[in-house]
Design goal:
The protein is α+β, with helices and mostly antiparallel strands. Helix content is 19%, strand content 36%. Strands 1-2-3-10-9-8-7 form a 7-stranded antiparallel β-sheet, covered by helices on one side. The chain has a 3-stranded antiparallel β-sheet with strand order 4-5-6, with no helix packed on it.
Length: 179
């Protein structure tokens, strides 16, 4: 299963007949969707949140090859965090909405310069919705929005996260966790 890169609007049919769509639009957001071969409970809570460290690319963390863990606390008000060597700990977001297996919402408190952005007013928002289409089939809708909160570099940041090396790569790693 592949998640298409977030970039220009693209539609593709796989042999199984599943459609994928990805977009980076001029309204300041990146969107994508994919069909995952798992229940909504497994796709949302178990793999996306609980097993976050198993699929999120360590090369996209501050700790990189010495990363100990990265994850999110599975509750409303929880923290998104990274742990590295010798007690290194950094929060990179918050979880304002935690409704597995239907919806996860977290703030993206990482600046365009890849620095922590502790002010929640300067954070963009990532939302995932999980729609169970069958016992082992879930449509995952992804949206990263409110890039304007990142200030003057917002558009370049949206473009970078929408490029092949941004969310498409990250979501591809998430999708591969189901292979």
């Amino acid at each position: 299963m592949r998640v298409l890169p977030v970039g220009r609007i693209t539609r593709e049919r796989e042999q199984s007949g599943g459609a994928h769509d990805r977009r980076a639009d001029h309204r300041g957001r990146c969107t994508s969707y994919a069909t995952i071969p798992a229940s909504a409970e497994r796709a949302s809570y178990a793999v996306f949140a609980e097993e976050f460290a198993s699929w999120y690319p360590s090369e996209y963390t501050w700790s990189q090859d010495v990363l100990e863990t990265i994850g999110m606390e599975g509750r409303e008000g929880g923290r998104c965090f990274e742990c590295g060597p010798e007690g290194f700990w950094i929060d990179w977001g918050r979880v304002p909405a935690w409704n597995p297996p239907d919806r996860l919402l977290f703030s993206w408190q990482i600046s365009p310069r890849r620095e922590p952005a502790p002010d929640p007013k300067k954070a963009s928002v990532v939302e995932l919705r999980f729609h169970e289409e069958g016992p082992q089939s879930t449509r995952v809708e992804f949206e990263h929005r409110d890039f304007s909160r990142h200030g003057e570099d917002a558009e370049g940041y949206r473009e970078a996260l929408g490029s092949e090396q941004g969310w498409p790569y990250i979501l591809g790693r998430y999708s591969a966790a189901f292979d």
